Amino acid sequence: MKQVDELDQLNRKSFIVAEPYPERVLQFGEGNFLRAFVDWQFDKMNKLAEWNTGVVIVQPQPGGMVEKLSEQDGLYTVILEGIKDGQAMKEHTVVECVARGINPYGSDFVEYEALSQKPELRFVVSNTTEAGIAYVPEDRLEDRPQKSFPGKLAALLYKRFQFFGGDQSKGLVIIPCELIDRNGDALKEIVLRYADQWGLGAEFTAWLEEANTFCNSLVDRIVPGYPRDRIHEIQTELGYKDDLVVVGEQYHLWVIEGPQWLKEELPAHLAGLNVLIVDDMAPYRTRKVRILNGAHTALTPVAYLYGLDTVGQAVEHDVMGAFIQSLIREEIIPTLDSPEAELNLYADDVIERFRNPFVNHYVMSIALNSVSKFKTRNLPSLLQYVKQHKVLPAKIVFSLASLLVFYRGDRNGEPIALADEAEVLGAFGELWSRYDGSLAGAKQLTEQVLGKQAWWGQDLNQVEGLTEQTAQHVYEMTSRGIKETLESLTGKSVPRA
């Protein structure tokens, strides 16, 4: 019988699984994100779509939490907080799909290796951090286990190939969730590299290619994790002790680039989940980077210099809120290829997430390496807008100017805790030390910054009008202040005290 330790007697019955689920999912990683995102969805599919699937969680590093997970019989609570259908909502569920946890770095290794022989095993999911999908040359087939996640997977797949004699029906669907571009392709490439390095033969390589499906995926849910600062309050509300409580936002999206038959094997649609099986995930990745991440990066210097500290404060503010909405709707969305209605619905979701009343998302937590973030997230929108409309996008340009002023390192006489590469901070420090407060000085500073091809990948002074417009904003912000400058740009204002 499964039960969470120290559950109130009145609550125990609701957390009992009558029959163990068949172990059809092998999961590398036991962290907060997988448990609040992937396992939460698998649990939903079991309860609402009769998926009948258990998850075996493998600890990918020597230090981990599978022991604690085992102490709670695989049960833990997911608390979702945020905006849902326009209303602030908080709800919780006990996830019951985790069958067991395994630590392969010790006595569990034999149990771990035996997973390769399970005929019902069908899926592999993972989140071993961005550094997890990496090639480690010293990994060997005989290691117990291999150091790298791809090495572990390659060895396990080879064991499965041998045990089932190359049976095509015993291939697996592999869906990594690591936050790197085309994660499935990257994982498959390394697995194939190990197959060659270890001399596993052409038949195994053919089985890898033909019987297994490596999917690229894009995951999207903010998961703050274990609510350490309010765990006692939460456990009092729940009525039981749970040392693996994990908090996430209401919104979730899982885009999986894979064959359409996967919809039948992964019946997320029957459970009302926001899972998309697509032929090409590139538009979804571009949409997320440009709209969600781009809006975050664009608003950060503007909001902070304006005197607002959180994303929620920014979107609720009359002036900043108008700025953000205009930037997304009028300058980012028109540069994307997806249907406008679809993009606007996604933008609605993004704004709702920014408004989440349960999360204080500080803009300074987004400010790390803002120059490289602007290049990746905002510069493509700026350049595409110019290409399409032959004019500059006013709000994105204002954000760029605000970024330059932000790197002056001062907000109303208080120092800003800038965090970037030493070369970036040193260059800005020198340029601002020479600024004389004049329009000519602002233009000279702007020309120097926009001309740094190592930062932007090109000389941005070559974009017609960009230097002049950016410099004008820099001059006005440093002479009049950002509030008056932004209010003139948006046509919005707030009463002065």
Characterize the structure shown.
The chain is α/β, with parallel strands linked by helices. 45% of the residues lie in helices and 13% in strands. The chain is built from 21 helices and 14 strands. The protein has helices at 32-36, 38-49, 66-71, 109-113, 149-163, 183-197, 202-211, 231-238, 262-265, 282-306, 311-316, 318-332, 340-354, 370-377, 379-389, 394-406, 422-433, 439-450, 453-456, 466-479, 482-490, and strands at 23-28, 54-58, 76-84, 87-95, 98-102, 123-126, 173-176, 213-214, 216-220, 246-249, 253-257, 275-278, 410-411, 414-415. It has a six-stranded parallel β-sheet with strand order 5-2-1-6-7-8. Strands 4-3-10 form a three-stranded mixed β-sheet. A three-stranded mixed β-sheet has the order 9-11-12. The chain is globular and about 75 Å long. It starts with 22 loop residues before the first strand and ends in a 7-residue tail after the last helix.
The major sheet is characterized as: 6 strands, parallel
Radius of gyration: 26 Å
Given as residue ranges, the uncertain stretches (5+ residues, pLDDT < 50) are 1-17
Shape: globular
Number of strands: 14
| Helix vs. strand class | alpha/beta
How big a fraction of the residues is strand? 5-15%
